[in-house]
């Protein structure tokens, strides 16, 4: 470690003057100073490590819970696309559910009785019939043939395969009954159960069925919302900052504006949600639950952050650059746009991206404007009802099914991933556009 | 050039200017001094009459009247805070950027009162260029540093003409041979002295009539300083130069006339050789002999 801190200090002696020529009291004080320095250093190190420990704890919990959500249990079924099932004109009207049930009954011919059959049919997700439907639609020649198809298992089966159901519990407390367990064991031994990459998680919207629920709707909703936020808050924020910093006269009115902007940055975000509800939805009539209104609300919330960051980066441009430009006869606006703004832009972009990352993780104001609704469809435009990533996490965390726990953690991982990407982008942009002088 | 030397060798004017009445000024920290020596010349390029500068309540320049002749170097010296830089910045209205600053009196460039409401500061600053204390090239290429002024003022019609302006400006600033092969490199990559000459070239590029220099060598080493001083001597043949400096030797080397400022007053003006060898006012003498400042 730093050798300076361990410099030998002449020990205090009974003499007034020690060998170094300094007084005893001086040496004592010196030692005390070094000790204080050491203490402070260790405190700092301890603080860093405890922060890192908490971060590691958070990440391991989230990843430990959520990693399994990226894999999904599938069951192999022998489906016969019986011609008799496709008597209607419209192929999409056929009863695909029955095809699945028939296949299951064929696989376990010994199962009889209404209740047992229901338990058997419960092994396979209701998504299986959609899969068959899509297959037939894409290739009608399948009708009349027999196909070996992998279909998604029900969420409870999925949990069992992932080892998240404790079979030692009494049967009544379990979602998987003993008979179901036997069936699953038998198809497992036959190699007809597999864990595969869960594509549905990235291509589907929300669903009541955990095995069918995906975050595509939430990602697109967040994307549209942030797009609106960026398009509104960046130009408005930068223009406001330029006016306040470069053009506004220095008087009470501008001081008042400045105080208000700084205060707005500290206003709880749910207030912005209430404002959005009152103004945008009830007064302006913007459709609720949409990325449009979400973006408007988040714009209000992000503006102070961007204005403050932009003003700080304008302030950091040395005044000598402004003088140089004015000195050769540039007008005020030429000075700002030719010289000051290019130098301030990296800082402004960084501030903007950090504001955007904040907006991406914001939940409370979106709850107020209806983005908390259960929305299955992936939004196609800014006026379609949509969920946002953090709200989706909130919704899933609130759902009772065991399988939504891992979905929640997986969605958190996706959200954190986006945040890391955005912050990395901020660092990259700053490095790229930074002009050194 | 002749006019200047004629004027400064003329002992005809009375030592204390009698033409102007002392204005009734109440808010002054120090009593108003009457300028010793003759601040006026026969064919002035710029004339300043009864100039007061206030920052808010405090008065930074008190009733200063002085002329700037064509093709001369006028040095302004004085202790820190004496207002010499403030006065310099009045000459191209750079003080406009300070909101609390008020300038009264009359400053004329040829026949135009530069503080007149109808005067546009943009062309004024093209006519009265400025070089600052710290070299402040734009964080752009050497070429763009020079070309910026002519571009915004529309002084050239095409690229060839612009190239020509850049080359002549750099040649006048004595920088051409050093940078001609690296015009595309950033101006900030040059040494301090080269940067300051680049700033001078940038000021020259918009063909000014007067160049103001605010302690242009204070951030430079002696060799770079010597180069700038040589350059100032050459530039005098084409421009009027007003230079603020802390280094008295520099004032004596480069200037023809010297003005001594003290606490906002213009104490003494005269031919440089007279100021440095035979100052009339006690304050000037104290400053020059190093008793304070």
UniProtKB/TrEMBL annotation, chain A:
GO terms for biological process: phosphate ion transmembrane transport. It is found in: Cell membrane. It comes from the Bacteria. The chain crosses the membrane at residues 42-63, 223-244, 264-286, 292-314, 340-361, 410-429. InterPro entries: DUF3333, MetI-like, MetI-like_sf, Phosphate_PstA. Keywords: Cell membrane, Membrane, Transmembrane, Transmembrane helix, Transport. Residues 219-426 form the ABC transmembrane type-1 domain. GO terms for cellular component: plasma membrane. It is a multi-pass membrane protein. One of its GO terms (molecular function) is phosphate transmembrane transporter activity. Belongs to the binding-protein-dependent transport system permease family. CysTW subfamily. This is Phosphate transport system permease protein PstA. The lineage of its organism: Bacteria, Pseudomonadati, Thermodesulfobacteriota, Desulfobulbia, Desulfobulbales.
TrEMBL record, chain B:
GO terms for molecular function: ATP binding; ATP hydrolysis activity; phosphate transmembrane transporter activity. GO terms for biological process: phosphate ion transmembrane transport. The keyword Cytoplasm does not apply. Keywords: ATP-binding, Nucleotide-binding, Phosphate transport, Transport. Residues 46-288 form the ABC transporter domain. This is Phosphate ABC transporter ATP-binding protein, PhoT family. The keyword Acyltransferase does not apply. CDD domains: ABC_PstB_phosphate_transporter. Pfam families: ABC_tran (PF00005). GO terms for cellular component: membrane. PROSITE patterns: ABC_TRANSPORTER_1, ABC_TRANSPORTER_2.
């Amino acid at each position: 470690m730093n050798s300076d801190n361990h410099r030998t200090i002449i020990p205090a002696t009974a003499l007034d003057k020690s060998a170094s020529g300094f007084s005893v009291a001086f040496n004592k004080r010196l030692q005390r100073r070094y000790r204080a320095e050491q203490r402070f250093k260790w405190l700092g190190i301890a603080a860093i490590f405890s922060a890192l420990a908490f971060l590691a704890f958070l990440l391991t919990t989230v990843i430990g819970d959520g990693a399994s959500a990226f894999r999904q249990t599938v069951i192999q079924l022998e489906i016969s696309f019986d011609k008799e099932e496709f008597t209607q004109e419209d192929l999409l009207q056929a009863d695909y559910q029955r095809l699945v049930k028939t296949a299951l009954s064929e696989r376990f011919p010994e199962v009889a009785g209404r209740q047992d059959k229901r338990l058997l049919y419960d092994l396979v997700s209701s998504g299986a019939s959609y899969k068959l439907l899509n297959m037939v639609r894409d290739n009608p020649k399948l009708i009349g043939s027999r196909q070996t198809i992998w279909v998604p298992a029900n969420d409870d089966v999925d949990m069992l395969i992932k080892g998240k159901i404790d079979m030692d519990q009494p049967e009544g407390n379990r979602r998987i009954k003993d008979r179901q367990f036997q069936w699953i064991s038998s198809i497992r031994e036959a190699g007809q159960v597999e864990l595969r990459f869960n594509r549905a998680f990235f291509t589907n919207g929300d669903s009541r069925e955990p095995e069918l629920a995906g975050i595509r709707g939430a990602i697109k909703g967040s994307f549209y919302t942030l797009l609106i936020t960026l398009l509104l808050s960046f130009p408005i924020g930068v223009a406001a900052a330029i006016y306040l910093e470069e053009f506004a006269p220095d008087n009470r009115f501008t001081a008042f504006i400045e105080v208000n902007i700084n205060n707005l940055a500290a206003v709880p975000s749910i207030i912005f949600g209430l404002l959005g509800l009152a103004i945008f939805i009830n007064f302006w009539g913007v459709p609720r639950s949409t990325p449009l209104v979400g973006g408007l609300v988040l714009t209000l919330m992000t503006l102070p952050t961007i204005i403050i960051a932009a003003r700080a980066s304008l302030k950091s441009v040395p005044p000598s650059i402004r003088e140089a430009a004015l000195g050769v006869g540039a007008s005020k606006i030429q000075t700002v746009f030719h010289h000051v703004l290019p130098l301030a832009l990296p800082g402004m972009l960084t501030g903007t991206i950090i504001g955007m990352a904040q907006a991406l993780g914001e939940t409370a104001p979106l709850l107020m404007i209806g983005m908390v609704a259960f929305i299955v469809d992936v939004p196609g435009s800014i006026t379609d009802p949509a969920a946002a990533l953090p709200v989706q996490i909130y919704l899933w965390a609130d759902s009772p099914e065991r399988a939504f726990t891992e979905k929640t953690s997986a969605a958190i991982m996706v959200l954190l991933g986006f945040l890391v990407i955005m912050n990395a982008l901020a660092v990259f942009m700053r490095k790229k556009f930074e002009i050194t002088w | 050039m002749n006019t200047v030397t004629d004027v400064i060798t003329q002992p005809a004017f009375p030592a204390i200017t009698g033409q102007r009445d002392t204005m009734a000024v109440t808010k002054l920290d120090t009593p108003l001094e009457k300028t010793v020596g003759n601040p006026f010349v026969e064919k002035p390029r710029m004339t300043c009459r009864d100039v007061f500068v206030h920052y808010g309540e405090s008065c930074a320049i008190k009733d200063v009247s002085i002329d700037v002749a064509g093709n001369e170097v006028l040095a302004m010296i004085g202790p820190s805070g004496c207002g010499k830089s403030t006065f310099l910045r009045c000459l191209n209205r750079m003080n406009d950027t300070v909101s609390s600053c008020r300038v009264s009196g009359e400053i004329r460039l040829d026949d135009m009162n530069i503080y007149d409401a109808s005067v546009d500061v943009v062309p004024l600053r093209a006519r009265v260029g400025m070089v600052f204390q710290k070299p402040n090239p734009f964080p752009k290429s050497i070429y763009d540093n020079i070309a910026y002024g002519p571009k915004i003022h529309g002084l050239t019609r095409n690229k060839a003409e612009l190239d020509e302006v850049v080359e002549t400006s750099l040649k006048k600033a004595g920088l051409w041979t050093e940078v001609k092969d690296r015009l595309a490199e950033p101006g900030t990559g040059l040494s301090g002295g080269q940067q300051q000459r680049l700033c001078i070239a940038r000021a020259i590029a918009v063909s000014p009539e007067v160049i103001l220099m605010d302690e242009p060598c204070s951030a430079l080493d002696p060799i770079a300083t010597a180069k700038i001083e040589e350059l100032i001597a050459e530039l005098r043949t084409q421009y009027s130069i007003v230079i603020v400096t802390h280094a008295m030797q520099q004032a004596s080397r480069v200037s023809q006339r010297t003005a001594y400022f003290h606490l906002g007053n213009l104490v003494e003006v005269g031919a440089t050789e007279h100021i440095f060898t035979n100052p009339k006012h006690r304050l000037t003498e104290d400053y020059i002999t190093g008793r304070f400042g």
